[in-house]
Amino acid sequence: MGAKKATAVREAASRDRAVYLAAAWCLSYPDQDVLERLPLIRSVLAEHPDAAEDFAPVLAQLSSVPPMEVQARYVQEFDLGKRHALHLSYWTDGDTRRRGEVLGIFKQVYRRSNFLVDTHGELPDYLPMVLEFAARVDLDAGRELLIQYRPSLEMLRLGLLDDKLPHSLILRAICDTLPGKSPADQQAVMKMAGYGPPTESVGLEPYDPRLLPLARS
């Protein structure tokens, strides 16, 4: 590899790590720890102004809205329903028996890194956790999980976009680090995932027809 190409690879990796770490914190519940990290998030993104633009609306919201209000908004949008589910395998496997096996695969990836990954009581497919793992522990392994669950990321992005939430820009920044262009709509995401129209559902009745029909008996 030539020196110029090696430099470009390092710069791309640095940018991706910055995006993943900033996204991990911005998509997490905005408790006091997250709010105290706002200057650090801006510092992480400072060297990558193109990516920083996608984070600006959420960072502005976190820094200007009273903490209790911003926390209540987060709970409303991300915790009280599944419309903006941050658990990657929910979009592909829903609440089915197969999902337990999938979650075990995430755990195996973390274990192979030889780092102790504290899940803080979250399921291992929780997007902020996957992003922080990619940023701080194993960029390649974390990116592979993101690539594998690209359809989940895209469905989440489209859902946030439909509801006019600024977090959709953060999902766009994440997807921009992955190969290929983002699909324009839900049908294109399903095509990306390799599935046609759903013919059978497994497990609980989906709350939303946008759930990807990847789970099969």
TrEMBL record:
Keyword match Transferase: no
Xref: Pfam families: Nitrate_red_del
Keyword entries, A-Z: Nitrate assimilation
Top-rank lineage group of the source organism: Bacteria
Organism: Arthrobacter terrae
Transcription found in the keyword field: no
Record InterPro entries: DMSO/NO3_reduct_chaperone, NO3_reductase_chaperone_NarJ, TorD-like_sf
MF annotations from Gene Ontology: metallochaperone activity; unfolded protein binding
GO biological-process terms attached to the record: chaperone-mediated protein complex assembly; nitrate assimilation
This protein's name: Nitrate reductase molybdenum cofactor assembly chaperone
